[in-house]
Amino acid sequence: MVRPATAVTSAVLFFVHASAVITLPPGANTGQNLLPNIDDPNAVNAQTACPGYTATNMQTSNHGMTATLSLAGDACNAYGTDVDSLDLTVEYQANDRLNIELVPSHIDSTNSSWYILPETLVPKPQSEQANADDSDLKFTWSNKPSFNFKVTRRSTGDVLFNTEGTVIVFENQFIELVSSLPEDYNLYGLGERMHGLRLGNNFTATTYTADNPDPLDVNIYGFHPFYLDTRYYEVDGDGSYTYVPADTADASKNYVSRSHGVFLRNAHGQEVLLRPDNITWRTIGGSLDLYFYAGPSQAEVTSNYQASTIGLPAMQQYWTFGYHQSNWDWPNWDTLEQVVANFSMYAIPLETMWSDIDYMDQYRNFQNDPVNYPYDQGADFIDSLHQNGMQYVPIVDPIIYYPNPNGDTADYAPYDRGTEANVWLTNPGGSVYIGAGWPGYTVYPDWHHPNTSAWWLNELALWGQSIKFDGIWIDMNEVSSSCVGSCGSAYVTQDAEHEARDFEVAADATSTASYLVTTPTPGVRDINYPPYVINHVQPGHDLAVGAVSPNATHIDGVQEYDVHNLYAYQETNGTYQALTQIIPGKRPFILSRSTFAGSGKWAAHWGGDNIADWLHMYLSIPQALSFSLYGIPMFGVDTCGFEGNTDEELCNRWMMLSAFFPFYRNHNCIGSIPQEPYQWTTVTQASKFIMGIRYALLPYMYTLFHDAHTTGSTVMRALAWEFPDDPSLAAVDRQFLLGPSLMIIPVLDQGATSVDGVFPGIAQGEIWYDYYMQTEMAVEAGVNTTLDTPLGHIQLFIRGGSVLPMQQPALVTRDVRNSPWSLLVALSGNGTAKGSLYVDDGESIVQNATLSVDFKANTTDTETGSASSSLYASVSGDFQDTNALGNVTILGVSSVGNVTFNGNAVGSDSIAYNEESKVLIVNGLLDLTQSGAWDQDWVLSW
């Protein structure tokens, strides 16, 4: 059957166009008011109503165990049909990774009551079949009073996951698993949402991909069922360890932390209840496929999760780290040309111009507006961008215009070719599912169909012959629909021209309607109105509001209810494969709004439709740090805000903050005031200043990304991750680190001219240098320091012990890459420093040659122990970089003797040393490195 539009009729969804007002059916965007059971005081408590399971047929091996779990009593059928028999598999996949899987023992492939996520869709990690005794994770179980299990850390005895005293509930539309947690625990992840970095212990984390502009504390675009758990322990005098809640720690005592990670490989809608002493994981289908990562550091957990399970993040092209400008209200190519000219006039760096849906012909994918965005003018504009070292990225939506068969504009070739290939999602009866979106009535590519990827490639390639894009921006791929159900099935012929431009809800009747509570029928799934309703963000908590309906059907019979959260994941993969053929040899650049665990191996992500206010500027930091955990380091937000009007002060502060996010783009909404940085004098000045620093640091950022791509390390980092033994940092998310070496403390409050920041590690001898003054900070350990920060300034600090490779800033990254190198060395308290550099051609998927340089500085000869201050560069690789070394700046230098480079004396006129600031600057190296800074190993001594 076709999902009914709604029983509520007082809301009208309408499209607005200069020449027409076209209505959809009454109530087309209003869902049923399904009672969210978490808020229903009369809801069945599955923990008390259900019997749990009893384990039998236990079989053990060196690598794990298997068992059969049978219902331990009468079925409760609380929110679906109880599964009477489950298969348990426990596998020690590696010494630091454990898998626990529960699936129904008998699944009839023709029975849609259960959908188990196939490996062909979301791969499982390969098992190394570790020996149980060698693993730092230990699985134990009991049948008292029903089956329960524990996961402990073998080396310390810490209980990481414990279901004792609870029951496992496993029904066809409701699965529940409860684990105890220690007091005031520290959990991070379970995204995507706008929330602080640490989740808290009285919070419900719903995960279900939703088209909803960045509300607080609820589910939005992405789906990442992974959390990081960090626990702090006081080191007692006898060498033992005692768990301590982070917020009660005493700064005078010594602590260590241990982290682990948990991933639930399940794509159904989920709801995770975080309560003071436990976590309850609920999902409305699928299986329990749990992965535990031992750590014990955050870095080890994150690397393991990415490298073994979801895939390492894609390496990005060098140009993607430049500055990007976008706007949803540029009416024609002339406007884009003027924007580029304005950036040039004000000498503000600009790397990439973006097009939102303005360029489309009546908002139809793969077609340009012939009047305002003609192909010939676009080709000339894009050619001009490319000649000047810039790029162009347009938006594409997965919503395809459905032509009115009786209208004058029925011919739409992308739709016709898709229909011929049979690639559209359908209703359960086989008719095409017709939703609504920007072009009017729309159909949706079915990524389960074997023809869809080829059709998608063909459409992008045909369009790309006229529009030479450098990447693709995918929006609306949650997947979004502006009406409930297949609303176009009965009304499509009433919309002759589909001149749809905008939509809104005229009235919302949900607040006065009664709640709908459904009763489960044994053996039957109600996917339109499931018996258990997750606390979904959309009106009525209805899964069909703002999205393709749960009963939309794929070619293999799978319904959207089971794979909704994977739509963008599959589309992103298809787009990545397409771009490898359209732009052969080059790394595809894809920006996707919706993401799933593993999307980072293909795509970047931006924070979605945020708001131009101070709160959302702050929330961009924990959002970015969370995506570091999810393996999507190429993250940024709509700088200066998307919805609403920004102002000069906010945009000034935001442009400076976003300069230290990997993806740096300014974008705003139709109807908002323009917010390109040249709109205000102070923002122009601040942007030029901070972009100069960002562009100079691009070699450092690019090297961090290569590390992430090859090892699963993070780029943006929480202070707690880099300084894991300081409990006071557990919830810090108003400042952050870029890699291990740079700390950023932004102003996040309106009207503020100072900011408070903490300097971690001081008590252990850490040194922090002011980036601008290049002098050591005189700060106290564990104390918030107030820092004067006038408008146009952002606090930036270098960690002692760092070597930062740099180049000269320029207006485009191409020119940065062709400029002389420099090094900024910040010595630690014991006179040492280290760093690294990675260089390649900046664009190829497969490199013919690469270059790596390791830097090491010390002030003591490691062999003789005598005083000898030197900086060493050890070079490996065959990539030919001919840029010379311009200068080396060394901070924290106590004294200077003879300065030599590979034994050659450096002239005194090329040396500057300030005894008060302890800064040594060595110039005059261009002549000594004419064939390239990295054509050989070298040593600089002073």
Task: Give an overview in words.
This protein is α+β, with helices and mostly antiparallel strands. It has a domain at 820-941: Golgi alpha-mannosidase II (Immunoglobulin-like). The protein is 16% helix and 28% strand. It has 15 helices and 52 strands. Strands 3, 4, 5, 6, 12, 14, 15, 16 and 19 form a nine-stranded antiparallel β-sheet that branches. The chain has a nine-stranded parallel β-sheet with strand order 32-31-30-28-24-21-20-34-33. It has a six-stranded antiparallel β-sheet with strand order 44-45-46-52-48-49. 52% of the residues are buried. Belongs to the glycosyl hydrolase 31 family. It is an enzyme of class 3 (hydrolase). Residues 712-804 form the Glycosyl hydrolase family 31 C-terminal domain. Keywords: Glycoprotein, Glycosidase, Hydrolase, Signal.
Summarize the helices and strands and which ones pair or pack:
Elements: E1 12-17, E2 20-26, H1 46-49, E3 53-61, E4 64-71, E5 85-94, E6 97-104, E7 137-142, E8 148-153, E9 159-162, E10 169-171, E11 174-180, E12 186-191, E13 203-207, E14 224-235, E15 241-244, E16 255-264, E17 270-275, E18 278-283, E19 288-293, H2 298-310, E20 323-325, H3 333-345, E21 352-355, E22 360-361, E23 364-368, H4 375-387, E24 391-396, E25 400-401, H5 413-421, E26 435-437, E27 440-443, H6 452-464, E28 472-474, H7 488-491, E29 503-505, H8 560-563, H9 567-582, E30 590-592, E31 604-606, H10 614-629, E32 635-636, E33 638-639, H11 648-658, E34 664-666, H12 681-696, H13 698-711, E35 716-717, H14 719-722, E36 736-738, E37 742-745, E38 754-757, E39 768-770, E40 785-788, E41 795-799, E42 802-807, H15 813-817, E43 821-826, E44 833-839, E45 851-860, E46 867-877, E47 885-891, E48 900-901, E49 904-905, E50 911-914, E51 919-922, E52 938-941
Parallel strand pairs: 20-21, 20-34, 21-24, 24-28, 28-30, 30-31, 31-32, 33-34, 43-47
Antiparallel strand pairs: 1-2, 1-29, 3-4, 4-5, 5-6, 6-19, 7-8, 8-9, 10-11, 11-18, 12-14, 13-17, 14-15, 14-16, 16-19, 17-18, 22-23, 25-27, 26-27, 35-36, 36-37, 37-41, 38-40, 39-41, 42-43, 44-45, 45-46, 46-52, 47-51, 48-49, 48-52, 50-51
Helix pairs in contact: 6-9, 11-12
